[in-house]
Write a structure and sequence with these properties.
The complex is a heterohexamer, with three copies of chain A and three copies of chain B.
Chain A lengths: L4 H26 L7 H28 L2 E2 L3 E2 L18 H19 L9 H24 L3 H5 L7 H19 L15 H20 L7 H28 L4 H15 L8 H24 L8 H19 L2 H4 L9 H32 L6 H6 L1 H6 L6
Helix pairs in contact in A: 1-2, 1-3, 1-7, 2-3, 2-4, 3-6, 4-6, 4-13, 6-11, 6-13, 7-8, 7-9, 8-9, 8-10, 9-10, 9-11, 10-11, 11-13
Chain B lengths: L1 E7 L4 H10 L5 E9 L5 E5 L2 E5 L2 E10 L4 H12 L8 E6 L2 E4 L5 E3 L1
Antiparallel strand pairs in B: 1-5, 1-6, 2-5, 3-4, 7-8
Helix pairs in contact in B: 1-2
Classes of the chains: A mainly alpha, B alpha+beta.
Bound molecules: adenosine-5'-diphosphate (ADP) (3 copies).
One adenosine-5'-diphosphate (ADP) sits at the interface of chains F and B.
């Protein structure tokens, strides 16, 4: 139990960078909604960060990382951060706690996109606290806190299952419960502020290096590998999505940045296990697959409004499976399907599909309960005038 | 010549444009405005208090047409912009005495 | 005197992050002014950074950190960075100098908010150089350069007194000298670009980790503690301010982010001395207190235009006192009031109130001198057309 | 061959920060074009990052850093990153590769400014791949990969020649081939979104610390020196450009930030070789010189549209020469002209002017070939409606 | 029916709206414009040189009212928008021949 | 009095303003609009398909002048806004019955 200054420095900065991703999610999505909801969209991300911070230091961290209870959940050892100190193994325990905290925050922020332009703020706060406690914390425990998935040997380097499947499929469930935006499919709801989305995307891309490489929890060769494959996968996803959409029409910048995010999501679980050439394939496939899912979503007239499901949900699921395909022992100590390890692929599949099922069903139930009790959705008039005015009493001067 | 000014819901713009184009009216000028009608905007309930959101964003469409086209345009806009709820908007018709094409140098005086 | 690569890496990056806070201050405030002054507001922050950089490397650093003269000011040993080298104890001396430089820059940038939308650029430059030299540098010396406050044992981990009290109470003095904006109180001066403010707030929050944790000057457990309490206090402040304003009306995103900043200010002096649970209390109280101060300011019809006084001044003062209340020896080696150390609380009080008095009075005098000689304020016409056009010959195409 | 965690941590974060500079270039330039082209301008930077990433990991890295062939180009040893592993000397080889990658990306992004508002997207992609392979990679090899310039002893700490001369003079050549924007010189093409430019500038300034200090490839005193002189030079450049433009009229914020960038460019090759006082001179001179070049460019009615040539090209050239003037052995081991080492100055001159000639001529030829075959430029109608709509099918809702 | 177009200082909008509402005129359409009067905008002194800022931001208010309401509206706007300094703005009145309510299908012709 | 409404290319605004000022017409109100003429906007070729960009950004200029000044203003605008290509714009003239100066309290009725 000695601290390594280099590792500590690395994880400290990474934690700050991942924290920045939460408002970046707000900017990313804020640019995609109609101008009357842009403040609301950004504010929801900040609020996610604030409530998850308090939840995590009081109860969330111990539920996720307390001593394992039946493979399912952590015990209350660290309640209120009791016993989480300034010492640690390589990095301070407190720092590990904070690094995990910012992951929990961003998951909730991603989820807000599914209910964009129609969620009631007070209900969101209640929902968010419940969701983090009952959906995110168990998933974190399963994968990283000594739960069944970790015991089984499932690989999730930086949160493909924990963060992306949970928030992506959660967003889908939530959007089904809350219902479509008024006028969805009838009139245009084009993104109104694409430069804000591109700015958010840039900050996400930046923060993602910390998200993935930081998950090595040390400044070493593994972190460098994670960093490099993250960069490659993002680039590859950006190019395939852009390319595919070019065949159908014009290559939008939104397609390009969505592809980059798809590539980033896809490589997240894999980044500590696969090499650069696999990253080209993973990123490229994630770009194509998520683009296809988006087209399917539109075709099915689902108002999973800003495609958290298509990109984070399906991208995360793909990444979890791809980890089982492309993993190579020389990097992360485990081989995948193409190196003959069928078992790992099956483990990945079980882990991922349980996560899909759990997060979808639990989110659906939670959302239903909130909806039946305090109501998830604003009134029709409030939706019409926009959440900026209706929920925050603010508006942009345009 | 007459200028037809329609103040409509932004979300109805596409429908209005399409229906006008079908009838052969392509030319138009549009811009963003905010407005309220006699109802003073939309009333939200907030903890029992009334909270009026006035000045709702709208789109204004200006179309200059020949006198005998006015009725068609009015009816087309009315049909395509209507939802039946408060805030559907208004159409105003005012006289235009001269129309000049800058490029064509066409000059129509009435 | 050996360098530690991990610590050096940490402080290098932290210095860059704190530098980013200065333009972030510009964005934060730029979103709150009328669109005709947004460029001016942002430019003032950049200009603060530029002039303080030159001031600091020539004279400011040595006045702050040169050998102590009577507890009041530093000697001229390091004039022009003479003798400030690439070696150092843990981190290079040069790096320490740069880390301190970016603190001085942000203090001046915060100050610009008090004279928003009416300051004459040329006068600001003269004022800024004088203020940094005569107000900031002595305060830095007192707290960190071996001055009387440090000798007395006053605690100011990351600049509650040096940066926030000085700029907050300085802004109040400055706003009193320059006078209200034309039309203040008569017609609406609502923030016109809230997303820009939220972006600035996000970057400030991000940079604040470097500001506070970086003040440990090492990547160790103390830095991790500072990091964690910073995050908690920001979240707590965001929630209490938002909650309190919700009782009065709608919870604005501006209230939420202002509360986060209040929480960040409040924890700044304390972050190396208090633990996570105290951080919840400090952040939450700072949120409430600063919100109350803002309401008081509006009630008193003071045009301290963007609430640097309410948030940085009063928040910094509160933080300095709270450090004396909640400090715990296990973290920073000193106990506070609640652990029975009344003396520390009194020391904190003396330090903070002297800083309040000194920065208010000195700033007031400096501002008066500038005003009587070259004039602080633009003409009525210039104010009317806006500083973007009047001072910079530029405007936003909206 | 052992890894140093502190150095690795530093370079990991620096690489992420330099990556962020590429979208920052997009924002910086995006704010300067007419609103109908802002999305296009930002997208071009992202696309530069994406295509250079794939180019670099497949062929670019080995062409630059493979074993030297005749001083001119690297061999194919590292094709597809073969043999580039997680170990390394101080930092992992992979990380070094990634750090170099983000430099290549930003060079191409800077180049896009010369063809702002009129480049055809598909042609840009082809051009970009060729340019990186045939212009950037050789220059990187010459300076850092064991090529003739390095053998000769030419100093380029962080890429004054490799990145800035190449992109600046490249942008000039490209703008000459593509021709002026329709209406250039006839009607106003004022920057329409200055706050976006200032935001981009802030992120560039932030990232530049990583660009320059990171080039030490270790968290040590040399990195600290590079950091400090970077900060000083930026400040100095901002002030001299602003001052000079103030004499002619009003001090625009655009002049201030352009001066800062000029100062940053000027110090880039020098930052590991010169001290703080030299940095004041270098930054200040770069500010004046680049401003003069901009005036000259306007006077000559050249539509090198956003002044990459004036700032990066001429600033980089000046910096290369200034390195030969102000270098001091105590910092980087080499003395310059003012310390009597005429030879170094001559070497710098040869290196810089060869780079100027090579990048200008090669870029010109490449651009001509593209133009004659697939056409560099959009049609007149597309230019008229703007590239956002014409190339991406998107637009800002204003 | 008449359309009253007032071009006023942005900072006077609230006062104008309030005073009109008091008199019972709620309905209106507003949008941002820029303009200059005969004075060619505002003249700043800059190192002895004149530096004219033309095209100052204003708000345009359009209100369609019955003929006999015109005077009241003009006077109300004039009183509430006035500062006495250059740039206070102008009011124009022009004829409107037809008013149609899109939702109500009300059709007023003159 | 007449209101002259010109819808022009944004890039021609400076020229129009200058030429009007030379003739003594300083006062005007401008704002951003989007529009299309009978041509339904601009047609881009995209992989053989027609791809119409309708609603091109324009600037609308409103100038209220005395009746006998109408011709001069029309001609001045026409001359300075013309490029000869599609999209040059239109000028409309409509009646104004009352003009009120808010500051000057000047009241012109026709
Ligand atoms: N008398 C009027 N004068 C000017 N504009 C009007 C008038 N009446 C209505 N409008 C415009 O038409 C829009 C829609 O009107 P209406 O449907 O009556 O309003 P509401 O939104 O209050 O239901 C308003 O927002 C306003 O812009
Ligand atoms: N003759 C006119 N035609 C069109 N708009 C006018 C005219 N005169 C004034 N305006 C509008 O009214 C606004 C205020 O006019 P006035 O008070 O005379 O201008 P100024 O701001 O120069 O003092 C102008 O900015 C312009 O938008
Ligand atoms: N009949 C009309 N009614 C309203 N606005 C019109 C009309 N005709 C033209 N305009 C406006 O004038 C602008 C230029 O017209 P024109 O030169 O005919 O159009 P185009 O851009 O299709 O060539 C249009 O963009 C539109 O804003």
């Amino acid at each position: 139990m000695v601290l390594e200054a280099g590792d500590t420095a690395f994880v400290l900065i990474c934690t700050a960078m991942v924290m920045l991703m939460t408002p970046a999610v707000g900017l990313f999505y804020g640019g995609m909604v109609r101008n009357k909801n842009i403040i609301s969209m950004i504010a929801l991300s900040f609020i996610s960060l604030a409530i998850v911070t308090i939840q995590w230091v009081t109860i969330g961290y111990t539920l996720s990382f307390g001593h394992d209870i039946g493979g399912l959940i952590g015990g209350l050892d660290y309640i209120g951060l009791k016993g989480v100190g300034m010492d640690g193994d390589g990095i301070p325990d407190m720092l590990f706690m904070a690094f995990q905290l910012v992951f929990a925050a961003i998951a909730l922020a991603i989820l807000t996109s599914g209910v964009a332009e129609r969620i009631k703020l007070s209900s969101f706060i209640v929902f968010g606290l419940l969701w983090t406690t009952l959906v995110y914390d168990p998933l974190a425990h399963w994968a990283w806190g000594g739960g069944w998935a970790e015991s089984m040997g499932a690989l999730d380097f930086a949160g493909g299952t924990v963060v992306h499947i949970s928030s992506g499929f959660g967003a889908l469930a939530l959007s089904l419960v809350i219902g479509k935006r008024i006028g969805f499919g009838k009139y245009s709801m084009e993104p109104e502020n694409i430069t804000t989305t591109l700015l958010g995307g840039a900050l996400l891309w930046f923060g993602w290096f910390a998200f993935n490489a930081g998950s090595a929890l040390a400044a070493n060769g593994l972190a460098a590998n994670a960093f490099v494959v993250t960069l490659i996968s993002a680039a590859s996803g950006a190019l395939t999505w852009m390319g595919a959409s070019w065949i159908k029409g014009k290559p939008s910048s939104l397609g390009m940045i969505s592809g980059a995010i798809a590539g980033l999501v896809g490589i997240t679980p894999a980044c500590g296990f696969v090499g650069p050439l696999a990253a080209i394939v993973i990123g490229g496939s994630a770009g194509l697959l998520c683009y296809g899912t988006l087209l399917f979503r539109i075709h099915k007239k689902l108002d999973e409004s800003l495609d958290a499901w298509a990109i984070h949900g399906v991208g995360g699921l793909f990444g979890a499976l791809a980890t089982g395909v492309f993993a190579v022992a020389a990097i992360g100590g485990v081989d995948g399907l193409i190196y003959g390890n069928v078992g790992q692929f099956i483990i990945q599949g079980i882990d991922a599909f349980v996560a899909v099922g759990y997060s979808f069903v639990m989110t659906y139930i939670l959302a239903k309960i909130i909806d039946k009790t305090i109501g998830l959705r604003v009134t029709e008039e409030e939706e019409y005038v926009g959440l900026d005015v209706a929920q925050h009493g603010e508006s942009m001067e345009l | 010549m007459k200028k037809i000014t329609a103040i409509i819901r932004p979300e109805k713009l596409e429908a209005v444009k399409e229906n006008l184009a079908e009838k052969g009216f392509n030319a138009m000028t549009i811009f963003n405005v905010k407005g309220r009608g006699e109802q003073k905007g939309i009333c939200l309930q907030f903890r029992g208090k009334r909270n009026v959101i006035d000045m709702i964003p709208k789109i204004q469409i200006d179309i200059v047409v020949k006198n005998d086209e006015v009725e068609t345009v009015i009816q087309t806009i009315q049909r395509s912009a209507r939802t039946g709820k408060i805030g559907d908007g208004k159409i105003f018709v005012s006289p235009v005495e001269i129309v000049v094409g800058i490029r064509t140098e066409e000059y129509i005086e009435e």
